[in-house]
Write a structure and sequence with these properties.
The protein is an alpha/beta fold. It is 30% helix and 19% strand. The chain contains 8 helices and 8 strands, in the order ααβαβαββββαβααβα. Strands 3-2-1-7-8 form a 5-stranded parallel β-sheet, covered by helices on one side. Strands 4-6-5 form a 3-stranded mixed β-sheet. The radius of gyration is 16 Å and the shape is globular.
């Protein structure tokens, strides 16, 4: 079943490839050989694949995806790319567990914060960026696409962000006011790249 899930296009997959296909990440800080990257909300690996092509064999990519079906597909897709290290964990403001709302018929839009009418729920492991990155002495880029959890993720990584000062690429749900306050506290400057639509292209 997992092997079947890893092949072909499922509802929601196109959103994972949208930002790569439309060139959004090309307008961010360019990745270089040897870079260390966090892919938070890795889904099925679109950004991890994009990053691996740019950081090369000397780079490292840590891909975090808590939804079990997506994690299974991510692991299969990334298995030929040894520099990508998938982990089945949600990033947040604490260490332990959290409730994830997910769509049984769609691979995108899973959230700790928002529940839709047809959402199901499951408990998944959660850890802070500070816990997961405690041993890192380098971090160049953090991409966060976490359906409303971005502020809590940054709160849980304030020590890491202050220590290693990576560039951040964050998809913001809502106004982003609370996120902006937290980023300001740790000395980050915010630049808006583009307002994205929910249109789903084919990968």
């Amino acid at each position: 079943i997992v092997e079947q899930l890893s092949m072909g296009h499922l509802p929601g997959d196109g959103l994972a490839f949208r930002d790569v296909a439309t060139g959004v990440y090309d307008r961010c800080r360019p990745l270089e050989k040897g870079d260390v990257v966090l892919d938070v909300g890795a889904h099925v690996g679109a950004f991890s694949t994009y990053s691996a092509e740019r950081v090369g064999s000397s780079g490292r990519i840590f891909a975090f995806e808590p939804e079990p079906r997506n994690y299974a597909r991510l692991s299969i897709r990334m298995s030929p790319i040894p520099i990508v290290k998938p982990q089945a964990v949600a990033l947040g403001e604490g260490d332990g567990a959290t409730v994830l709302h997910f769509h049984p018929q769609c691979t995108a839009g899973h959230s700790r914060c928002f529940a839709h009418i047809d959402s199901a729920r499951l408990v998944v492991p959660m850890a802070t960026m500070d816990t997961l990155c405690a041993s890192l002495d380098r971090l160049d880029l953090v991409k966060i696409d976490a359906e409303g959890s971005e502020t809590n993720i940054v709160r849980g990584g304030k020590a890491t962000l202050g220590r290693l000062r990576p560039h951040l690429v964050i998809e913001v749900d809502g106004t982003g006011e609370a996120l902006g306050q937290v980023l300001d506290e740790i000395g980050y400057t915010i630049t808006a790249i583009e307002k994205l639509t929910d249109r789903e292209p084919r990968p």
